[in-house]
C-alpha cells in the first residue's frame, strides 16, 4: 500500500522559513512525477509546486521565487523549501503524485504563518 508521509510544518512568523519533507513508500519512486499541494481553510486544494522524474520544476504564481521543490530518489523523499513565508501561505500542505492520485492523500502537515 502506498503511503505518503508529510512532515516539517509548524508555526512561523512572516518572513521566516520552513522545510517540508514527504517520505514515499512508492515502488520505482524515481520515475514518478511528484507535487506539493496545499489547502487553506475554506478553500479548495491547490497545486503549489511539481517536480518531474527528470528534475524539471514548476511553481504556482504566488510562491514562485520563494519556494523550492526538490527530491532525493535514494531516500524516496520530496522536499519543499519555503522562504519569505507570508500569512496567506497558511494551509495544510500535502504531497502526492503529479497529477495527484485520489487514494494517495496523506494527513498533510500544518503550516501557520503569523503576521
Task: Give a short account of the largest sheet.
Answer: 6 strands, mixed
Contiguous helical run count: 0
Distance between the termini: 40 Å
Q: Give the ordered list of helices and strands.
A: EEEEEEEEEE
The main sheet orders its strands as 2-10-9-4-5-6
The percent range for strand residues is over 45%
Number of strands: 10
Rg, Cα atoms, Å? 13 Å
Q: Could you report the average pLDDT, rounded to the nearest whole number?
A: 96
Shape: globular
Low-confidence stretches: none
Tell me the helix content: under 10%
Question: What can be said about this structure in brief?
Answer:
With 115 residues, the protein is mainly beta.
How would you explain this protein's 3D organization?
- β4 and β5 form a beta hairpin.
- The radius of gyration is 13 Å and the shape is globular.
- The chain is mainly β.
- The model has no long low-confidence stretch (mean pLDDT about 95).
- The chain has strands spanning about 5, 10-15, 20-25, 35-40, 45-50, 55-60, 65-70, 75-80, 90-95, 110-115.
- It has a six-stranded mixed β-sheet, with no helix packed on it.
- Helix content is about 0%, strand content about 50%.
- The termini are far apart.
Secondary structure layout:
Layout: E1 4-7, E2 10-13, E3 18-24, E4 34-39, E5 46-51, E6 57-59, E7 67-72, E8 77-82, E9 91-97, E10 109-114
Parallel strand pairs: 2-10
Antiparallel strand pairs: 1-3, 3-8, 4-5, 4-9, 5-6, 7-8, 9-10
Amino acid at each position: 500500500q502506498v503511503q505518503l508521509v508529510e512532515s516539517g510544518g509548524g508555526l512561523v512568523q512572516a518572513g521566516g522559513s520552513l522545510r517540508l519533507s514527504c517520505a514515499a513508500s512508492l515502488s520505482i519512486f524515481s520515475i514518478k512525477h511528484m507535487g506539493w499541494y496545499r489547502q487553506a481553510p475554506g478553500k479548495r486544494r491547490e497545486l503549489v509546486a511539481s517536480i518531474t522524474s527528470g528534475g524539471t520544476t514548476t511553481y504556482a504564481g504566488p510562491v514562485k521565487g520563494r519556494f523550492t521543490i526538490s527530491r532525493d530518489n535514494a531516500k524516496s523523499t520530496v522536499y519543499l523549501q519555503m522562504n519569505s513565508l507570508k500569512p496567506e501561505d497558511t494551509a495544510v500542505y500535502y504531497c502526492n503524485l503529479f497529477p495527484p492520485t485520489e487514494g494517495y492523500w496523506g494527513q498533510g502537515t500544518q503550516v501557520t504563518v503569523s503576521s
